[in-house]
Amino acid sequence: MKRLFLLPAMASILFLASCGGNGSSDSAATTADTTTAQTPAVEAPGADIPGIDSVNVTDDIHIDGMDNMQFDKTLFKIKAGQEVKLTMKNVGKLPKEAMSHNVVILAQGTDVQAFGEAAVTAPDHIPAAMASDIIAHTKLLGPGESETISFKIPDAGVYDFICSFPGHFGTMHGKIVVEP
Ligand SMILES: [Cu+2]
Questions:
Q1: CB count in 10 Å sphere of residue 11
Q2: 50, 100, 112, 113: most buried, per Cβ within 10 A?
Q3: 122 and 35 within one domain
Q4: Ligand 1 center to 81 CA (angstroms)
């Protein structure tokens, strides 16, 4: 029985579609669409990152690096232009030569893969040739060591941070969302 009703329904849809190309009702719809499309432009940076809603703005970041090649936290939110303290601690027990960690905050647009690869052979695993890609970084920290640095990021956006010890950036990476 349903099929009998489908045919006239489809015919009227086709009829409406073919008539929609002209007339004032179409230009009114276009104007309405433009207004709606402008709304996402004011959306906060990083709004599409899963879990970002439960992260509060801070000026005091604490990150632990662990023997399983992970950071304990990977998502932070700060304010543009605000001075932020960052304390990185290597809470692992493995020897420094095998398992050191750092935090390197990268400028927007940095090729993280290229940076991580250049870091492998660089002194202290900080590639001097890519210094302009680095916003701030801690030194390499062995087991039980920690360091506090401070930095400012003037422009809102989403920034990657990694551990640049060889082989680590694949699992040791996170994001800092900078709010305007
Ligand atoms: Cu590491």
A1: 10
A2: 100
A3: no
A4: 28
The rounded Å distance from CA 17 to ligand 1 centre is: 58
Q: Are residues 63 and 108 in the same domain?
A: yes
Residues 169 and 94 in one domain: yes
Distance 170 CA to ligand 1 centre (A): 10
Q: Determine the 3-state secondary structure of 165 from DSSP.
A: coil
Q: pLDDT per residue over 69-106, tens digit each? A: 999 999 999 999 999 999 999 999 999 999 999 999 99
Q: What is the DSSP string of 19-47?
A: HTTSSHHHHHHHHHHHHHHHGGGGSPTTT
The CA distance from 91 to 72, in Å, is 10
Distance (angstroms) between ligand 1 centre and the Cα of 46 equals: 24
pLDDT in tens, 125-164: 999 999 999 999 999 999 999 999 999 999 999 999 999 9
Give the structural domain span for 110. 52-179
12 torsion bin: left (phi>0), alpha (psi -120 to 50), beta (else): alpha
Same domain, 35 and 66: no
**Are 81 and 155 spatial neighbours (Cβ–Cβ below 8 Å)?**
no
Please give the model's pTM, rounded to 2 decimal places: 0.77
175 and 131 in a common domain:
yes
Q: Rounded to an integer, what distance in angstroms lies between the CA atom of residue 164 and that of residue 176?
A: 17
